[in-house]
Specification:
This protein has 78 residues and is mainly α. The protein is built from two helices and no strands.
């Protein structure tokens, strides 16, 4: 047995009496804004913005390269 139209009407009247017409209108307006904001968020792309390349300021010296570690050649023990 489901809820019929008479039961829904009684529930709606009780809610109207408890909250008042103005407050219900405000809640429905906020609900509508939330739905439109959700739809707008769903249509936007989720691609991240391209990363900006960070370049050193003009006139600053280039970073020094670190020397590669020397390989050990053990040719003395034969």
């Amino acid at each position: 047995m489901g809820i019929g139209w008479p039961q829904l009407l009684i529930i709606a009247l009780v809610i109207l009496v408890l909250f008042g017409r103005g407050r219900i209108a405000d809640m429905m307006g906020d609900f509508g804004k939330g739905i439109s904001s959700f739809k707008k968020g769903m249509t936007e792309t989720d691609e991240p913005a391209p990363k900006a390349r960070i370049e050193p300021p003009a006139g600053s010296p280039a970073p020094a390269e670190t020397p590669a570690p020397a390989e050990k050649n053990d040719t003395t023990s034969a």
